[in-house]
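lol ok so funny story. i was supposed to be doing the assay writeup but got distracted and ended up predicting the structure for this chain instead. priorities right. anyway since i did it might as well share w the group, maybe its usefull for someone
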Amino acid sequence: MIATRSHIKVSLGYFLLAALLGVVLRTFVVAPLPINYRFIVHTHSHIALLGWVYIALTTLLYHLFVVKQGLERKYRRIFWFTQICLLGMLLTFPFQGYALFSIIFSTLFLLASYWFSAFFIKYAPKSLKDTKAYICLKYALWFMIGSSIGPWSLGAIMTVLGPESIWYRLAIYFYLHFQYNGWMILALIGLFLLLGIP
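and the output, tada:
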């Protein structure tokens, strides 16, 4: 329970950080700042989506499904590896945008999300695996994994077609739509079903 509370606080910390970055972005309208606007947009979107929302949802999934399985050490490894990825993005995106180190940390985050998905699907108790909540959550995780086709394809698209290609934007939209409309919405529905919220 202590770990769950502290991890939710970490998620809320990312929410506050994303909000502050949003304020910085709005400030550009009224006052010029000596920072790259586009780099801050990238930082804001990654911290909001992958820091706040992802950490909150995965913490709830762990707490409501897996915590009683006695797997705190395994979960803690996934959690802290994910934090390293997020901090890496936080320290690289504002200064270089999409470049070598930010791409490395973003890629590592994708691997962390695969790691969590495998952990959850493997260790969720059998008594819950026939419930509508679990089925919904399992599909949510598959949508999250499927969404990563977008980022994985970006390297090839940029190399062959360039960043101005429509396929570049389509890959990003593919990722975002499967994140929002697949992973996040289905995860919330699964959590509501589990908690009996109509």
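The chain has a mean pLDDT of 93. The radius of gyration is 18 Å.
back to the writeup now i swear
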